[in-house]
Sigma-70 family RNA polymerase sigma factor (Streptomyces venetus), 193 residues
Amino acid sequence: MAQKEGPPRWDRKMQQRLARGEAAALGELYDRFASLVHGLAHRVLGDERAADGITREVFAHVWEHPDSYDPRQGPLRTWVATLTHHLAVQRLRATETEALALEGSGTTEELEHRVRRASVAARADYIVQSMPVPLRSALERAYFQRRDYRQTATDLGITEDEARRRLRLGLQLLSTAHDTEAPGAPPGFGGAA
């Protein structure tokens, strides 16, 4: 039976540096993951200021609790994304529940539907951002530029078979956005945070 490979060396070193209180480590972590954190928070909340607040909360949590990351559970990137998702969903529920109480329109079922929809969208964004560049490039051409597999192959300088393979694999990965039990799915990334 194959053993699960440990986290990348950078992840372990980063956690150690954060645990020692190295401010430069927080800066490096911020440089690497701030756009991911902000993008996921914005995708869930749909609000720039709220996403800014979640971004601050995530990096404050990482700074104050670096030992809450367990390298055996997966990459630091996934942990940061999961933390972001959890905090953004909490904020969305609180905001929407408050609005529901004040306005009296809507139901808790509609609220949960909005939370699930936002969670799936954030997970899809995470999957796309995390997939290898060749897959992402093929999907971007097919989706945003409305290119078929032949045009994608020509654009990327690859065979048509390779273009079909990349598109198929990319779409298979993307289809797991609804499936929180999929291999490699970040825990808590299904809306039930």
Q: What stands out?
A: The radius of gyration is 19 Å. Helices lie at 9-19, 23-45, 48-64, 76-103, 108-130, 133-144, 149-156, 160-175. The chain is about 70% helix and 0% strand.
